[in-house]
Q: What sequence folds into this?
DNA sequence: CAGTGGTCTAGACCACGTT
DNA sequence: ACGTGGTCTAGACCACTGC
C-alpha cells in the first residue's frame, strides 16, 4: 500500500474514533508532514482522498476542518455499494433464490449496453433476494462470457461480486446507473408481493471493470417501501443528473 | 485559472472534438509535459481531473486511453445538476409557478437536516416546474435565512441556484440525496396530474456550500414517466448506496 | 504580518506490461 | 530491456485568512 493511502486511512480512523472532532481543525499540512515523516505533497495526496470522500473541508488561509456529516459519510463509505450481500453483511440474513439461469446470445439493447457483438454469449440470471425472509429485490443481470467465466447457478445463489473480485481476481471500476419509478409488473406481483398501485423503484446499471470492459448490465426492482438510493455528490465529480 | 485545470480543459476538449478518439491512447505523460512545457506532476494532476470524471483509463505499464462512453459522460458533465433551469436551458421552455412562499421557524426534522437551531427562520417555498407547458416536478425547498438572504417570490419563479451563485456569490459544494418511489398524494394529483396508481419518483436532498454550511433541504417529486436520476460512480469516490 | 492551503518544479525510484 | 504510469522528495512561490 502506498504511503499516502496509509496516511489517508490513518486520518480516516482518527475522524471515525473522534480523535479529530467534527468541525474542528486538523493539524496543518506541515505538522502532518512532520508527524508522518514525509513531504507536504504526500500529505496533500492523502487529504485529497478525504476531500473526495467529503470527510474534510479545506480552506485556503484558514485551514482544514472535519466536515459536518463526517460520521454519516463514514457509515455510507463503510458499506459501499458492492452488491446486496455485502450491504447487509452481519446485520441481516440475506438469502437468494435463482429463478432463471441460462446462457444465450444478447439482444441489440444488451449488445449496446455491454459493448459486445451479437455473437458473444451472455449469462442471463434472474434472482430474488430476500432480507430476513422478506422479499427485498428482484434482480435481472446480463453478463458477457467474454469477461465473466465459469459462473454457476450455485455461485449466483451467493454473491456474484465476491466471485468476480476474489475468485476471478478482477477489479471493479465505474458504473452508470439510472434510477426510475415504475408500476408493478407480473413478476413484481408474483415475487415481490406487490399489489396493484404499489410502486416499484428500479435501478438499471452498467458496471465496468477497472480496465474499462463492461461486465454487467442489470435491472434491479425494489418494493417502494423497502427501496431507496442514497447519492453523495461533490463539486469535484458532480456525477448525478435528473432527466 | 491554475495551469493543471487549463490543461485538463484542453484535454477534455480534445476528447469532445474527437481529437483523441474513444479507446485510443493519449500521448504519454512525458510527451504531454513537453507539449505544455510543464512538469510531469502537473500533467498528472490534469489527468486526475479527467480520471475523476471517468473520461480516461490509466493503466500502469500500458498507458492512458480514452474511456468507453466518454462522449455520453461529456453530455452528462455539460449539464451537471445545478437545478432544473440549467438542465433544460436552450432546449426546452421551463416555467415555474410559486405555489407557496413564506418565512417561518423550522420543525425538528428540518433543524436536523440543515444543522440549525429552532430559532433560525427558514424560507419555505413550494414550486411547480413545467417543461414545455407540461407539469414536470413539484419542488418543496427549505432554506435558512442565516445563509440565504433577500430571496423573493420573483426570484423563486426563476432559478434559485443562479441567484445563489451569481447574486449572493456563494459557491455550491456537496449534496446528499435519497431517491425513493412513492404513491401519489393529494398535491401530486392536483399539480402533477397523477392518477391513482401512477407512481412518484421522489428526490430528498440536503445541499451544502463549499464552506460546509447546509443551505437547502428539499423534496422534489416527479411523475414516473418524466423522472429518473442518472448516477455515475467511480471507485475513487464510490458515492451511491442502496438502502 | 504570520500562518494556512494551492500550485509547481526537476529529478528520482518503483511497479507494471509489452516486446 | 524499455516505456508506461505511480509515488515521493525538498524546496519554492502564490493566494487567501485572520490577527
A:
Amino acid at each position: 500500500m502506498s504511503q499516502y493511502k496509509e496516511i489517508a486511512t490513518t486520518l480516516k480512523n482518527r475522524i471515525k474514533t473522534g480523535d479529530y472532532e467534527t468541525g474542528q481543525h486538523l493539524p496543518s499540512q506541515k505538522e502532518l508532514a512532520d508527524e508522518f515523516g514525509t513531504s507536504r505533497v504526500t500529505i496533500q495526496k492523502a487529504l485529497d482522498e478525504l476531500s473526495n470522500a467529503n470527510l474534510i473541508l479545506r480552506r485556503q488561509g484558514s485551514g482544514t476542518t472535519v466536515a459536518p456529516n463526517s460520521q454519516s459519510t463514514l457509515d455510507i463509505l463503510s458499506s459501499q455499494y458492492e452488491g446486496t450481500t455485502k450491504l447487509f453483511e452481519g446485520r441481516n440474513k440475506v438469502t437468494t433464490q435463482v429463478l432463471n439461469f441460462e446462457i444465450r446470445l444478447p439482444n441489440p439493447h444488451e449488445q449496446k449496453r455491454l459493448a459486445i457483438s451479437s455473437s458473444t454469449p451472455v449469462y442471463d440470471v434472474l434472482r430474488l433476494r430476500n432480507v430476513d425472509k422478506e422479499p427485498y429485490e428482484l434482480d435481472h443481470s446480463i453478463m458477457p462470457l467474454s469477461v465473466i467465466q465459469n459462473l454457476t447457478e450455485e455461485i449466483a445463489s451467493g454473491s456474484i461480486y465476491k466471485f468476480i473480485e476474489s475468485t476471478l481476481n478482477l477489479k471493479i471500476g465505474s458504473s452508470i446507473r439510472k434510477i426510475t419509478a415504475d408500476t408493478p409488473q407480473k413478476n413484481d406481483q408474483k415475487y415481490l408481493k406487490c399489489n396493484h398501485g404499489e410502486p416499484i423503484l428500479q435501478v438499471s446499471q452498467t458496471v465496468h471493470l477497472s480496465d474499462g470492459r463492461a461486465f454487467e448490465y442489470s435491472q434491479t426492482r425494489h418494493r417502494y417501501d423497502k427501496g431507496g438510493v442514497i447519492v453523495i455528490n461533490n463539486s469535484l465529480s458532480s456525477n448525478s443528473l435528473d432527466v
About this structure: Residues 28-30, 40, 44, 47, 58-64 of chain A lie near DNA strand C (CB under 10 Å from a C1'). DSSP finds nine helices and ten strands in chain A. Chain A has two domains: 3-66, 76-230. Chain A touches chain B through 62 residues (CB under 8 Å).
